[in-house]
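Milestone M4 deliverable, item 7.
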Amino acid sequence: MKDKRKNKRIKAKKIDYSFTSKRLTMYSGLAPIFKFFDNIGLIDEFDKHFHTPILNATKYTNSQLMLSVISASLCGVSHLSNIAVFTADILVKSLLGLPNGLNKDVISTRFKALGEFGARQLEELNGQRVHHQLEKLNLKKLILDADSTVKTVYGNQGGASVGYNPHKRGAKSYHPLLLFLSDIKCVVNTWFRPGSTYTSNGIVDFLKQSSSYLTKAEHIFFRADSGFFSGPLFEWLEEQEWDYLIKAKFKGLKDLLAEKQWEPAAGCSGFWVCEFLHQCKNWQKPRQFKAVRCIHEYKKKNFFDQIEWVPVYKYACYCTNQDMDAGTAHECYKQRSTSENWIEQVKNQLLAGTTLTNDFWTNDILWQLSVLAYNLSVMARMDDAQLHRQEHCTFRNWFIRVPSEFMGSRKPQLRLYEQYLFKERWIRFADSLN
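Output delivered:
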C-alpha cells in the first residue's frame, strides 16, 4: 500500500525586529573577571600608579579609562569609537563606576597626557603581575621565547615608519618586541617600536629589564630566531649563565655548511646532522653550532652531455651552549613556534595594535593595555587545565560574551539564560574567580 504521509516542512515565521530593554548586557563574563581583578589587586595598582587629581571638570579617572580598554580587549572590541559605545553597556558602566558611556576623545586626550611615563609604568605593572604569578607557581625551570611582530598601519600614525614588512611591502608599520614565558604562556615584557627598528635592536637592554621580573630559578633557557643572532646577546646570556638556542644567520653560512662533513641522523631517515665550532667576526671566542639538513628538491644538471639529478639541500643551523645533539636542538627549536600562535592571539584576538591614534605614546599605552589583557586572560584560567589550553577567542565566546539581564542597583544580579549550553562550566569558572 502506498504511503501517503508527507514530510512535515518547517516554515520560517515572520518576526518583527526591534531593540528594547536597557537592562540587557552581552558581556556577563566581565562580572566574575572584575572580581578577579579586585582579588589580585589590579584596580588598586591602577589607582596608585595612575592617580587622577579630582577637579570639578573631572568625570573619569585614569583607572576607569584603562580598565575600559582592557575590558574592551577581552570582549573583542577595538577602535576608540567602538570602545565608547561598549562602555554604555549597563553592566560595563556598573563595573567601572561610570555615570554614562565614555567619549572617544576622553581616552585619547588622557593617554596622550600620560605620554611616555604612562607607557613605562604599564610595562612595569605588567612585569610585576608576571613576577607575582611566578612566585605563586615556584617554577624551577623557565623557558623564554623572544620574538617580534610587524603590525601594518594605514595612515599617518605617530612613530609608524617603513621597514621590514612581509605582509605588505612598503607600507608603514610598528615593530613590537615581545618576550614570552612558555611555561605559563604569559608575556613577560614588550616594547612598542617603530617599523624601521631592526629585530634585535636593544635586545640586551630589553632582557636586562625583563630579568628583573623573573624569579630565581635553577635553569633559564632562552630561544630566539635568526633575527636575534648577535655577539653582544651571546655574551650577556653567558654572563647571566642562561642556556640558549638561537638560529644562526651570518654571511657565508650556507657555503660554510656545504663544506662540512655530514652524518645520517639517528632514527630519522632523510636528515643529516653535523656539529662544529665557529667564531664570527667581532666575536671574542668561538661558539658551538648544531646543524641539520634535508633534501629540498632535485635539480637537473647537464654534466658532459649527461643529465644528472642533483639534490638541493635545505639547512637549519643553531648556536647553543647546551650539551645536545643537532637533532635534539632542531626539535627543541621547533617548539618555539607556539610563541607565534600566542602573538596571533595578542594581535588578532586581544586586538593589540588595532586601536590607534596619531600619537606614538598613546599607541604604546593602548598596546601595553591589550598585552596586559592577554596576560590577565591567561592568569584567570590558570587553575583550570582545560580552559588554560583554549585560545582566548574560544574563552571569550564561551564565558565572556554571554547575554543576560542585569537586575537591581544596590544588590545587582545577573540573570543568564536557563538553557545556556555551558551553564554549569560558566558557574564553576565564575565561582573559582570569586
